[in-house]
UniProtKB/TrEMBL annotation:
It comes from Drosophila kikkawai (Fruit fly). InterPro entries: Rab-GAP-TBC_dom, Rab-GAP_TBC_sf, TLDc_dom. The gene is sky. Residues 409-581 form the TLDc domain. Keywords: Cytoplasmic vesicle, Membrane, Synapse. This is GTPase-activating protein skywalker isoform X5. GO terms for cellular component: cytoplasmic vesicle membrane; endomembrane system; synapse. It is found in: Cytoplasmic vesicle membrane; Endomembrane system; Synapse. It is a peripheral membrane protein. Pfam families: RabGAP-TBC, TLD.
Length: 583
């Protein structure tokens, strides 16, 4: 169905250009008028001024059925190209089917059955009737950016309700300022229930990132955009830094998403969403870079954006510029997708490196390795998971006489060091020598297909240390082009840690800069039928024998760590390996 886009007499001429209109009768009781149309006919011009059509013959556009068939055939690249190239009119009925289908491909929740949303509404509010009283929004919503995009008061109440239900169903969301604006956009083209299902798909996506859900994710994202901009819009970023020598670029890039969501005209937003719902947040990255370049050019040729006029508030000037951006949606997207060297893999590397650097700096003070409160403490294991781990774990207890609070503190310390996206999932014990025996073969059977894993060792001297291993242990069997098994595998997300008697994290040395540190700095993980190794280069950070009984620890170049226990050699009392549910 198509959402309540048009259909009142004052807009008959505009409405007649639509190919078809499908109105969900069940939604009429919520929306007496189209969602983005003002209640008063006097406001119609103001509310609809952004929707303009060029006269003449419209280009041939691909249909929903064609795109649906391509998705069913797994031809996602073809779908990507179609979405980028087809500029459907803003009032095209295709989006009422297209957007739910695009968002639905990311859905991971098995329980999202018909009627689920309304059951949740009744559970949260006690009724499915829309209250006339204002609804208190969840804490993760940024009240200053609840952008309604011309929704009526009823439409805004529906958006409030959707966001509340999503917060109830997804308690791991602790900070997500863009969630409300995206909800408002969705409601232009679909029913309340469909909008909720779309959002659930975006929030729950595992393959791609769409919506940040914690403060740390939010911070890592804008810093990633800043790092990419320094390389791909070097002239623009240098110009802004030069005209405002006292300005920190961080202040500008912190609001990067609002250049798009709060600045761009609605028809630009809708076309961006066509691509965003399929490709993810990287679409917004690209658009932000184009905005920077366009603004830079305007600053050099238009007195309105002269240095004297913008130097005191470049961030606000950027949003004002976007409101009257001098290019069409098609040209904006064409420029965005013409940027070279901005692959998903490249963006992911910058994101991971930024996240690792941010977390290492927030967890450890310079030089002293003293623990401070982590920025990701808003994502902790559920209380039930904490109980389960404390009951199962023989490494976190250190000594049986320690209070459970000590176990909990160690768990929280370790949790604060994990990559932020991993903290969205709950830990599960995959292997322990206490229950599954001391055999490397059993270790591989129970662990090798899981990614990532957390190895925790408790020695007979009660030292506790381990490693976060970013890749599957099965990769020890992967062969190169010559048919030979690779000696080392893993990524720069891998890190070492010590929990007792000292608490310290030892991240990959590569996060400290772009300098090429050589092959020895990338010896993350190695394994065969006789041993397991983590870290290398002039020593092995952790080495264990095939019986998981004896091991040794040295300094190594990959992590620049000291030996994780004073003696260097150790006897294993307990080895535990944790995975994460749902990854």
């Amino acid at each position: 169905m198509v959402g309540k886009v048009l259909g009142i007499k004052d807009l008959e001429q505009f409405s007649s250009r639509r190919s078809s209109v499908y109105v969900d009768p069940e939604c009429d009781k919520f929306f007496e008028l189209p969602l983005f149309i003002a209640a008063s006919s006097n406001d119609i011009t103001t509310k609809c001024q952004c929707f303009q059509f060029s006269p003449g013959k419209e280009p041939a556009l691909r249909s929903y059925t064609e795109i649906q068939q391509l998705l069913q055939q797994g031809k996602k690249r073809d779908v990507k190209n179609i979405l980028r190239e087809n500029s459907w009119p803003i009032n095209s009925p295709i989006r009422s089917q297209l957007w739910p289908m695009l968002c639905g491909q990311h859905q991971t929740k098995e329980h999202m059955l018909d009627g689920f949303y309304w059951e949740m509404v009744h559970q949260v509010f006690g009724t499915t009737e829309l209250s006339e009283k204002p609804i208190m929004l969840p804490a993760f919503v940024d009240a200053t950016h609840c952008l309604p995009y011309h929704l009526t008061s009823t439409g805004r109440a529906v958006a409030d309700r959707i966001v509340n239900v999503l917060g109830y169903d997804c308690p791991d969301i602790t900070y997500s300022p863009v969630l409300y604006p995206i909800t408002s956009i969705l409601l232009h083209f679909m029913s309340e229930e469909e909008a909720y299902v779309c959002l659930a798909g975006l929030v729950g996506s595992k393959e791609k990132v769409f919506i940040n859900q914690t403060k740390l994710q939010h911070e890592v994202t804008w810093k990633t955009v800043m790092q990419i901009a320094k390389k791909h819009t070097k002239s623009a970023t240098s110009y802004f830094q030069r005209i405002c020598p006292g300005l920190k670029l961080e202040r500008v890039f912190m609001d990067w998403c609002w250049w798009i969501l709060a600045g761009l005209p609605f028809q630009h937003l809708v076309r961006i969403m066509d691509c965003y719902f399929h490709e993810g947040i990287k679409v917004l990255y690209r658009v932000a870079l184009v905005i920077l370049n366009l603004f830079h050019k305007e600053c050099q040729s238009n007195n309105e954006w002269s240095p004297d006029n913008i130097k005191n508030d470049i961030g606000n000037a950027l949003i004002k510029f976007c409101k009257k951006i001098p290019v069409s949606p098609a040209k904006l997207l064409h420029a965005a997708f013409s940027i070279r060297g901005l692959s998903t893999q490249y963006i992911s590397r910058i994101f991971i490196k930024t996240e690792m650097l941010l977390k290492s700096r927030s967890v450890l003070t310079s030089g002293s390795k003293q623990l401070i409160k982590s920025r990701s403490s808003d994502n902790l294991p559920t209380s039930q998971s904490q109980v389960n781990i404390q009951m199962m774990s023989h490494t976190l207890t250190i000594r049986e006489k320690l209070h459970s609070e000590s176990c909990r503190n160690l768990l929280f310390t370790l949790w604060s060091w994990l990559p932020v996206r991993i903290t969205m999932y709950q830990p599960v014990l995959l292997y322990t020598t206490e229950e599954h025996g001391c055999s490397l073969t059993t270790f591989y059977v129970r662990v090798e297909q899981h990614e990532p894993t957390l190895l925790m060792i408790k020695t007979c001297n009660n030292e506790v240390f381990g490693a976060y291993c970013s890749s599957r242990w099965f990769e020890r069997n992967v062969k190169d082009d010559k048919g030979q098994r690779q000696a080392y595998f893993g990524t720069g997300e891998t890190f070492l840690f010590s929990l007792y008697p000292e608490r310290a994290k030892y991240p990959w040395v590569g996060i400290e800069g772009d300098k090429d540190l050589g092959h020895s700095s990338e010896l993350f993980m190695a394994a065969d039928s006789k041993m397991i190794t983590i870290g290398g280069g002039e020593g092995q950070a952790i080495w264990m024998d095939e019986n998981i009984r004896f091991g040794k620890t040295d300094s190594c170049k990959t992590f620049n760590n000291p030996p994780l226990c004073p003696s260097g050699d150790f006897e294993i009392r307990v080895l535990e390996v944790y995975g994460f549910v749902g990854i």
